[in-house]
Each structure stands twice: as C-alpha cells, then as structure tokens.
Amino acid sequence: MAQTDLRQDDSQLLMDRSVPGRVGTQLPALDVPAQPLPPAALLRHDLPLPELSELDVVRYFTRLSQKNFSVDTNFYPLGSCTMKYNPKVNDTVAAFPGFAALHPLQPEETVQGALELLYRLQDMLQEVTGMAGCSLATLAGAHGELAGVLMMRAYHLAQGDTKRKVILIPDSAHGTNPASAAMAGFRVASIPSDAKGNMDLHALRNAANDELAGLMITLPSTLGLFDTGIQEVCSIVHEAGGLVYGDGANMNALLGRVKLGALGFDVVHLNLHKTFSTPHGGGGPGAGPVCAAERLAPFLPTPVIERVPPAAVPAREDTVTYRLGAPGRSIGRMAAFHGNFGVLVRAYAYSRALGADGLRQVSGDAVLAANYVLASLKDLYHLPYDRRCMHEVVFSAKRQKERGVRALDVAKRLLDYGIHAPTMYFPLIVDEALMIEPTEAESKETLDRFIQVMRHIAQEAVTSPETVTGAPSSAPISRLDEARAARHPDLRWKPRTS
Ligand SMILES: *Cc1c(COP(=O)(O)O)cnc(C)c1O
C-alpha cells in the first residue's frame, strides 16, 4: 500500500480547497422584490469562486494569521522602527464610537471634543519638541519631512531669497531625508561623519554658503548616536542663513530630556507610529506631525487646530471653542482632511496616561536597554563606534563575515529562536550593519535571552557556520529569492487547468 503523508498540508491555498457544492452560508428566501441585474455585458459567469464551509475559511485564515510575526507574540528589535509593545487601552480608547464614528466633514460644533483632543495633542508635542507650532495633518514620517522641507522652501521664498537651492544631509541620516529634500526640488549634498560618528564640522563649514537652504539631520542619527556637536552644527547653518530640519522619528531616545527647539532646530517631525503608541510595522496608518519654531510656524500645513478667543465668534460662543485653522502663510494641505485621527487619539491617550514623568522614563529605559545590549555583545560583535548609544545600537557582523557568515545570516538565524531580525545593512556607512533597537517595553529577562541567543549565534558562526548560513530551519519556508519576489510577485490565483 502506498504510504500517505498524514501531516497537515498548510501549503494548499484557500482557493484550491474548494469542494463543489459546499456552502458557508444559507440565505433566507427572498422576501423583497427582485431587482433587475446590470446589463448582460457587465455580468460574468466565469468567476471561479471557491466553495467552502465557514469552518474551512475560519481555520484557514486563523492558521495563516498565526504565521504572522508580531510584537504581541515575540521580541522585535527592528532598529529605527521602534516595534515596541503599546498598551491595549490606547486602542480601546481610539475605538470609542465617539471617536471612531466621526466623519471628517461633520460641522465643527458637533466635533468639539475631537478638536479639543487634537489641540491638546498639538500643545503637548510642542512642549515635547520645544517648538512654537504644530500641525498633525501629515500621515507618515516621510510625509512630515516633505512638509517641513516645503516650509523651509516657502520661508526662503517669502524672504525673497531665491538662491537657496541646496540641502545638506549627513551620511548617517535616514534614507527618507534626501528623498524628501529632492522631492521638494532641492539639490542634496552629503556631509560625512567623523571618526566618532558625529557630523564632520569642517566639511559642514566648507559647504555652508549662500546657496544653503538648510540642513536635515536625524537626531539621534541612524548610528544610534547623539551628535555631540549639534549646537555648533545649528549655529554654522544659521550663520550661513540656512534652516535646520530635525528628523525626530526616534523621539523615544530624547523624550523629556532634550528639546530639539532649545538646541537650535527650526522644524522637526515626529513619528507617532513609533514613539507614541502605534507600531511602525504593518504598513500604516501612521502620523508624522510637524512642529516648527516661531519663524516657521506660519508656514505649517493646514489644518492647525485653533482655540477661538471667546469674543471672536460672539454668535457661536457657546458651541465653538476649537476650530480647524489655516496658518497665515501655510504651505497648504498635505492630505485630505485632518490627519490619521485614530493614531492621534492613541498618541494622546498614551501621553496622558504616562504624564511628563512617564514620558521621561520611556527615553531613560529605551536608552538603558540599548546600552545594556551594547555592553553585553561588544566582545563578540564588532562595534564600529564604541561609545554610549541612544535608543539603538549598531553592530557590524564584520568578524563573522571572515568566516563566511553575514549580517543577513545572523538575522535569519535569530528567527529560529523566535526573535525578529534586527534592521540589516543600514545605516549604509556601516559594513554588515546589524541595527538593534530593544525598546523600553522589554523586560530584562527578554533582553538577557536575546543576548544569550546572539552570543550563541556568534559561537555557531565559528563552530558550525553552515547552521547559520542555512537558517532559518524552523520557519515555514526558508530563504526567499527576495529580488524575484519583489520583481515578479505572484499575486493572482488562477484555477488549475485539468
Ligand atoms: C522611520 C523613520 C522615518 C520615516 O518614517 P515613515 O513613517 O516610515 O515615513 C524617517 N526618519 C527616521 C529616522 C525614521 O526612523
């Protein structure tokens, strides 16, 4: 007798599980008049919908969902992305019908509570960044960047200063920075980092001339470092007549400790979908508010929520306190409506629950966790910048590479231990980069286990490198041809021809 494989076959697609005649629902007999069908030319009879029971469908999708890697199930130290655990209560609050069921075109007097929440959030983010104004309208970090650079452009043009066409960007910046500057029509010039990972001040001075529109700097940098020359950097740019843009996507390193405005920044964006209770992964939605210093605040994107002085609208005095405003020289709208409201509600709930002390503790814990990992692994993994890091630490798998084990292999091997890969090959200035962000949310036990696993993999790279280069061995599929998956995605099911 032929041997049958009794193991459950998870590889079969839902569509291929169809059994002719099987149904998942039963509709009652029609008790309303039948409506005419659309014209015959619009109807198709060849749609091969699968025939399945409800249970077939539920099991299929539930099992599929269990293959997802998530912060709710496993440690996720993906550098720069801040995949931290966020309290569920913030999701609950965002789902309150009074928030979730609002319509963006509702009259202002019927959404005063929502506008008040946005107003208070603007206020809080101004406090966090040390800025004079804030717009919550932008929908992602890169979107906030684009708004910020467009504001810089509008500012120079408003001064009649048409020569300023260059934006300087350090080589340790996030990749979206040069993209945003180019998109806003600027020429981008790169400034190298010095041996310590700070911006090379000499190179900056040489580049700061009257064509300079400004500098975009990620702080902390993608090396996970706080540029200790930052105040000097800001003065050099200002003296040349330029503006300083701060990429504050990783504010969890600085919360309650450093105000970017006080350091000399003119405009910054934050990633609420990193620091403020919405995870960055999963493709959205996000929120990348822009905060600006006094001289740039009039250029903020629309809307900015305003508090109406009671006397200003006497007739509506009792109903309208908050309204959607447009700053005097606004660059205009960056998106339809008023931003990703659900993400903004989460950020507000999160900040209110933590309070100023709690937010300060977030950055303290995030930085402590990263430095703990740094100190516990630097004997086995090369540390290109051997100094105290901020919320993330960048190692290089350079030593492992000598034995044929690359950063990618280390990352894949971590999956076998139920740990998400760190960010790899980024920042570009570090060879074989492994960028690890443990986040403030993880316990010491989790960090200790991660450290043990990383140490074990370093040992494997010496004793049995093929175990590492062949990883993952426990995942449903091993290594994908990622280039092919991106170039020739196979997204459409077609019935098998018999
Ligand atoms: C994540 C990140 C961005 C981009 O944010 P998106 O919301 O993905 O567009 C920009 N800069 C830095 C430093 C980041 O970490």
Main traits of this protein?
498 residues; alpha/beta; 7-stranded mixed sheet; 3-stranded antiparallel sheet; 12 strands
In a nutshell, what does this entry contain?
By secondary structure, the protein is an alpha/beta fold. It has 16 helices and 12 strands. Helices cover about 35% and strands about 10% of the residues.
Measured by DSSP, the beta-strand proportion falls in 5-15%
Structural class: alpha/beta
What name does the CATH topology of the largest domain carry? Aspartate Aminotransferase, domain 2
Identify the CATH architecture of the largest domain: 3-Layer(aba) Sandwich
Give the domain tally: 2
Shape: globular
Helical element count? 16
CATH superfamily of the largest domain: Type I PLP-dependent aspartate aminotransferase-like (Major domain)
Tell me the layout of helices and strands.
Layout: H1 54-66, H2 89-94, H3 97-100, H4 112-129, E1 133-135, H5 141-158, E2 166-170, H6 176-183, E3 187-191, H7 201-207, E4 212-218, H8 230-239, E5 243-248, H9 260-263, E6 267-270, H10 272-275, E7 290-292, E8 304-307, E9 322-325, H11 341-377, E10 393-396, H12 398-401, H13 407-416, E11 423-424, E12 433-436, H14 444-463, H15 465-469, H16 482-487
Parallel strand pairs: 2-3, 2-4, 4-5, 5-6
Antiparallel strand pairs: 1-7, 6-7, 8-9, 10-12, 11-12
Helix pairs in contact: 4-11, 5-6, 11-14
The protein binds pyridoxal-5'-phosphate (PLP).
How would you describe what is shown here?
The protein has 498 residues and is of the alpha/beta class. The chain has two domains: 88-352, 3-Layer(aba) Sandwich (Aspartate Aminotransferase, domain 2), CATH 3.40.640.10; 355-479, Aspartate Aminotransferase, domain 1 (Alpha-Beta Complex). The chain contains 16 helices and twelve strands. The strands form three sheets. Strands 1-7-6-5-4-2-3 form a seven-stranded mixed beta sheet, sandwiched between helices. A three-stranded antiparallel beta sheet has the order 10-12-11, with helices on one face. The longest helix is centred in the C-terminal third of the chain and has 37 residues, at 341-377. The model has no long low-confidence stretch (mean pLDDT 94). Bound molecules: pyridoxal-5'-phosphate (PLP). Pyridoxal-5'-phosphate (PLP) binds at residues 80, 140-142, 174, 176, 218, 247, 249-250, 271, 286, 288. Residues 80, 140-142, 174, 176, 218, 247, 249-250, 271, 286, 288 line the site of pyridoxal-5'-phosphate (PLP).
